[in-house]
Design a protein that fits this description.
The structure is a single chain. By secondary structure, this protein is mostly helical. It contains nine helices and no strands. It is globular, with a radius of gyration of 18 Å. InterPro entries: LeuE-type (IPR001123).
Length: 209
């Protein structure tokens, strides 16, 4: 087993999976724009800490999850409810509270760290995704499920996620003067994205019934 190869593949797959607009990367960009890059990085570190545990759970229980699709179905239903609620909040509630709140909400770096942990923990999709990637690597003889192999995979996954989040923060900082980077637009984007995720999840649940 080549631990460097395991790290690189885990890094690349997680990086690519985090690149499409989603709750974590859009929120990281929003915090970086509204407050500063440091708080955006603290949010991302909190999110990646949870991703470490998610990747660890996924690799340890990869075989179990593959043989028990009912567990993945439960995760899908939970994710559907969570993302539907988040979508409603950002589309209809956040814009109202924004108008009422004229003072800048100053949050500490520590609170943003825990904010990242919270949002990452309710995003359960990485667990079945990481389990699938881990099983695929194991089937090709690239990954072995022992301590060094699992550690290499987990570090690659968390590093890939962090780099993707950092790229989002830098990208939106470059276009911060454009309309798409406004607070209202960011709320709508997050709401639309989580709404689409909820719809796709519902479709997959109904398809498997």
């Amino acid at each position: 087993m080549n631990i460097t190869l395991v790290f690189f593949i885990s890094f690349l797959t997680t990086f690519l999976a985090t690149l499409p607009p989603g709750l974590l990367n859009m929120t990281a960009a929003k915090i970086s724009l509204k407050e500063n890059l440091t708080r955006g990085i603290m949010f991302s570190l909190g999110a990646c800490l949870i991703i470490i545990f998610q990747a660890l759970i996924a690799t340890v229980f990869a075989r179990y999850l593959s043989n028990h699709p009912d567990v993945i179905e439960i995760l899908r239903i939970v994710a559907l409810i969570i993302f539907a609620i988040i979508s409603v909040y950002f589309l209809f509630i956040a814009k109202c509270t924004e108008k009422e709140k004229k003072d800048v909400d100053v949050r500490s770096k520590t609170s943003r760290f825990f904010h990242g942990m919270f949002l990452s923990s309710i995003n359960v999709f990485p667990i079945p995704f990481q389990a699938y990637v881990a099983i695929s690597l194991a089937s090709f003889g690239v990954l072995e499920f022992h301590n060094i192999g699992i550690a290499s995979y987990v570090l690659g996954a968390s590093s890939g996620a962090f780099v993707a989040l950092y790229i989002y923060m830098i990208f939106f900082d470059k276009i911060k003067d454009r309309k798409i980077a406004s607070q209202k637009s960011m709320n709508y984007l997050i709401g639309i994205i989580t709404g689409l995720v909820a719809i796709v999840t519902l479709f997959n649940i109904l398809k498997d019934l």
